[in-house]
Design brief:
Layout: H1 2-8, H2 17-23, H3 26-29, H4 63-70, H5 76-87, E1 91-94, H6 102-107, E2 112-116, H7 119-132, H8 134-139, E3 140-144, E4 156-161, H9 174-183, E5 185-198, H10 200-205, E6 208-215, E7 222-232, E8 237-247, E9 252-262, H11 266-275, E10 278-287, E11 292-301
Parallel strand pairs: 1-2, 1-4, 2-3, 4-5
Antiparallel strand pairs: 5-11, 6-7, 7-8, 8-9, 10-11
Length: about 300
Amino acid sequence: MDTQRSTAVSALLDLSDDDIRAALPETECDDAGPLPSVSPDDGSGALWLPGLENVSVQGPEDVWLHDALLGPHSADIVGYLGMARTTGGPVLDLGSGTGRLAVPFARHGFAVAAVDRDLHSLRRLRRWARRIGPRTDRLVTTVPADLAGLRLDGRYRLVVLAGAMITAVPPQARPVLLREIAAHLGEGGALALDYPSHALTRLAERPRRTFAFRVPRFDGVTETVVARQVFDLAGMRERITYHCRCSTRHDVHLRTLTTRKWLIDPEHLAHDIRKAGMHIADRRPHRIDSVTEHVLLICRADA
């Protein structure tokens, strides 16, 4: 099912202006305008929606949207599994969500602690692990906690902050989180985190973006989304509003979701990593469009 969803993302931007306006509240329809012609591609056929990855499941009814937004990142599972084979376990998955990474880690024999503030997501993760089998289920520990103010037990050989989860951590809380991670890295361990890095001067020229797409679903519901992305460069914040229209043969349901995130200043992040007692061992950038690149950092504890 996850493979189907990821593949379906490549066709998301095929919507008419009428589709867009139907998904918007009446008060915003006059502002909708035509759909921008934006379809960044990573070369593998999977569509990337720059900066639109969500940071938590809003509710049970929003799981399909959440999976669609993270779909373009599904290829990173192979990369993280490769890191785990190099470092060994146990693994700490911070901001695990419904187990996109945690369950595959356990399925491949790694003990993994999955941390997330959303209890519904952790319950879905646990159900998925149980469906796979008792061995996978035993290797997963779920921990309900917010990353800001997180306190850890034990030591880990690999810590992951995937899906741009670092953007959900307030800048004032980030140094504390990184110090906590560094204090619990086992010998030869690594922290892997990713984030969208924006060219701020270019972003200032276009601080608002609008994307429209259809969420791939396989439950008889047609879901259309108009996403409004607004950047506040002075406050280094980002707000994304999702206007969702779900329709069946008998009913239409409209809802609005909002995600607020922090923009990452690479120099400030590197400073926080150094102050925590770690260093950046590897930096892997991936160009998304002329304004944004996706960056993966591999960090290790100082000797």
